[in-house]
Design goal:
The complex is a heterodimer of chains A (340) and B (303). Chain A has helices spanning 7-30, 33-59, 66-83, 88-110, 118-138, 150-153, 158-161, 163-186, 188-205, 210-236, 241-244, 248-260, 267-282, 288-305, 309-313, 325-339, and strands at residues 148-149, 238-239. By secondary structure, chain A is mostly helical. Chain A has one domain (3-246). Chain A has a two-stranded antiparallel ribbon. In chain A, helix 1 (7-30) runs antiparallel to helix 8 (163-186), helix 2 (33-59) packs antiparallel against helix 10 (210-236) and helix 3 (66-83) packs parallel to helix 5. The longest helix of chain A has 27 residues, at 33-59. The relative contact order of chain A is 0.16. The radius of gyration of chain B is 21 Å and the shape is globular. By secondary structure, chain B is mostly helical. Chain B has a single domain, classed as ABC transporter involved in vitamin B12 uptake, BtuC (Orthogonal Bundle), CATH 1.10.3470. The chains are: A mainly alpha (340), B mainly alpha (303). The A-B interface holds A 60, 62, 64, 108-110, 112-113, 116, 118-120, 122-124, 126-128, 130-131, 134-135, 137-138, 247-248, 251, 254-255, 258, 287-290, 292-293, 295-297, 299-300, 303-304, 307, 340 and B 33, 37, 39, 90, 92-96, 98-100, 102-104, 106-107, 109-111, 113-114, 228, 231-232, 235-236, 239, 268, 270-271, 273-274, 277-278, 280-281, 284-285, 287-288, 290-291.
Chain lengths: 340, 303
């Protein structure tokens, strides 16, 4: 059965589109200002977690650069709005393309050598974060150390009119990301990525073009993060390097994905929802340091106690050709457990 | 713009000595990454904690900075062993250990900011003149000045890196570590006691962070976000020097800091940190070329 004739795949696509349309219709018209703003951050984190997991969760290459791609999306949007009269849609496209282009260049270099696998890849993406921060904070065209006021620039556009419009755009991006995540869960593309995670050498010898898959998926994941950054620029109103490029973003995104689990495409979605809610609850403590400490220690505990995350702990319902329900679950856990 | 040769020499010397400090931070990272497979962000946090502990002991208990090592080195050894023990208990894969040390890195930043405040803390005004009066080279040599703290950094780096490099090469335990790196299972079969050695290496790496932290507290004002400023140079030096090769990391750190300092003489200094990563990316950019060349030669050999 080819994947796109798979009915359950279309059902999942349909469910995502339905949820997104419902959210777009209901939240901006009936929600209070707080609910809309919270909802916007909620869908942004979902988009970020799903797009990180698209590459890193599927292939097993942990990237610490996701915050960079998101931040580049924010700054690209700010720059387009500041220097041109182009509408927001153009800024959105530019944000996605610039982030994807950076990932493409980095990916082409890094993946060409098998030495830069695993933790070395993580370190390189972290180094990339620092170089991008240095570049952005020193180029007057982008920031130049003063920050950019996007609120005034976007004041008389559709997106700048209300937070509700930003929520609609954010939700559309998150839904598109979810669509890509669903596609990777059943297509050859996803299977190829997971074969890289399980054993890259074996995958390569069985004819999987691992280099091409890694480079293109890394770029796609970065592009989706860049898209998520575009409405964020308008939402923040004032954009500055310290707030946009924090290490919090990769930390939280990784935490969401680990918590939710990578064995199912919706794992990061569940993880993102839980972490955002917990963070909101921690705000009441009143000490950002303390809530940071709690989140960090929580990540350690989650890794120690739930290596497969929430979605990995739920048994699969649909039996497949290879075995019964329980048999498939153990087989999946065994493969992913062996790789990680 | 012309720069006098004396100024250039002084700048390069300062860079080299600061590079020694970064080299001694990179030592623990290089050994743990190369030989234990743990890319340890937390090592940088330990260095920061060592610096803050030195600061507190010197300002509150009025200890001599060098005496503080009697406390910090054993305490950090225990911490290093404990962290590695956690990894062993969890049977953590390299990816998992990376995530855990990353989480601990973020946690330490917040802890430091809660305990010691986010403000800059400067130990320098509290030090005796012996630490702060700069020394000059004797007469026939060019009139270069050296900070005593920088000399201390040089001595610590040479001692620690030298001893580690020698121990890895020449001692039985060092060879056991090398054997573990090549194949842990076979090493175990041949009688290498993997667990105690792993724990000891991690403990020693953490102890080196205590020493480096002492130098840091004398050398620069402390703030909880300092590790973010080091991480670039330390990680790049570790990678360029070759994982698990402390001497390579030290040399790389010295060279990188000299390049960075010389850069600031001619170009805007705010770009200097980017130079380090520029070197790394040049190194990375050479990889596709290398791959292409090696594949081309391999296919020619097959044909």
């Amino acid at each position: 059965m080819t994947p796109f004739r798979d009915l359950s795949l279309w059902r999942q696509f349909g469910a995502v589109v339905l949820c997104a349309l419902l959210a777009m219709a209901l939240v901006p018209s009936f929600g209070s200002d707080f609910v809309i703003a919270f909802g916007f951050q909620f869908v942004t984190w979902i988009g970020l977690a799903l797009s990180w997991s698209l590459f890193s969760g599927n292939s097993g290459y942990a990237s610490f650069g996701h915050g960079v791609f998101f931040g580049i999306g924010v700054y690209a949007t700010a720059a387009v709005l500041r220097h041109t009269d182009a509408p927001f849609a153009v800024a959105l496209v530019v944000a996605g393309l610039v982030a994807a282009a950076l990932a493409l260049v980095v990916g082409i270099a890094v993946f060409s050598s098998p030495r830069f696998a695993g933790d070395l890849f993580g370190m390189i993406t972290l180094a990339m974060a620092f170089i991008v921060v240095a570049v952005v904070s020193n180029l007057a065209f982008l920031d130049g150390g003063t920050g950019v006021f996007v609120r005034e620039l976007a004041a008389d556009t559709w997106i700048g009119e209300s937070t509700g419009h930003q929520f609609v755009v954010g939700t559309a991006i998150a839904a598109a990301t979810a669509g890509v995540a669903i596609a990777t869960s059943t297509t050859r593309w996803g299977a190829a990525l997971r074969s890289i995670r399980d054993d890259e050498a074996v995958a390569e010898s069985l004819g999987v073009p691992t280099y091409r898959y890694k480079v293109l998926t890394f770029a796609a994941s970065a592009g989706l993060a860049g898209l998520a950054g575009a409405p964020q620029a308008v939402f923040l109103g004032y954009v500055e390097v310290g707030a946009v490029f924090t290490l919090n973003i990769p930390l939280l995104v990784i935490m969401m994905t680990i918590l939710g689990g990578i064995t199912r495409w919706w794992g990061p979605l569940i993880g993102a929802a839980s972490v955002v809610l917990v963070r909101e609850a921690l705000l009441d403590i009143g000490s950002p340091e303390l809530s940071q400490i709690i989140l960090g220690l929580a990540l350690v505990v989650v890794i120690a106690l739930m290596p497969h995350g929430i979605s990995g702990a739920i048994p699969r319902r649909r039996p497949t050709a290879t075995g019964t329900t329980t048999g498939t679950t153990t087989a999946t856990t065994a493969t992913t457990g062996g790789a990680r | 713009m012309s720069v006098s040769s004396l100024a250039l020499a002084q700048t390069l010397l300062n860079g080299a000595l600061l590079g020694c400090l970064f080299g001694s931070i990179a030592l623990g990272l290089s050994v743990k990454w190369g030989h234990l497979g743990v890319a340890d962000f937390f090592h940088l946090s330990l260095t920061l904690l060592g610096a803050y502990l030195t600061y507190s002991l010197v300002t509150e208990q009025l200890w001599d900075p060098l005496l503080t090592l009697l406390v910090t080195v054993p305490v950090f050894f225990v911490v290093g062993v404990a962290v590695q023990w956690l990894f062993l208990v969890l049977r953590a894969e390299p990816f998992t250990t990376l995530l855990i040390t990353f989480a601990l890195f973020i946690v330490t930043e917040s802890v430091a900011s809660m305990v010691w405040s986010p403000d800059l803390l400067n130990l320098r005004p509290r030090l005796s003149d012996g630490f702060t009066t700069s020394l000059r080279f004797p007469e026939p040599l060019p009139q270069l000045a050296v900070q005593p703290v920088d000399l201390l950094a040089l001595v610590c780096a040479v001692l620690m890196v030298g001893v580690s490099a020698w121990a890895l090469r020449r001692t039985r335990a060092g060879r056991a570590v090398q054997a573990m790196r090549q194949d842990a299972d076979i090493a175990r079969t041949l009688g290498v006691r993997v667990v105690p050695i792993t724990l000891a290496v991690s403990g020693l790496a953490a102890s080196s962070a205590a020493v480096a932290g002492m130098v840091v507290s004398l050398r620069m004002p402390l703030s909880p976000t300092l590790p973010l400023q080091w991480i670039g140079i330390v990680v790049v030096a570790t990678m360029l020097g070759g994982l698990g090769r402390p001497l390579g990391a030290l040399v790389a750190a010295v060279v990188l800091m000299m390049i960075q300092n010389a850069w600031s003489l001619w170009f805007p200094p705010q770009w200097a940190p980017a130079v380090t990563f520029g070197v790394l990316f040049l190194f990375l950019a050479a990889q596709p070329v290398r791959r292409f060349v090696s594949e081309a030669t391999a296919s020619r050999r097959l044909a």
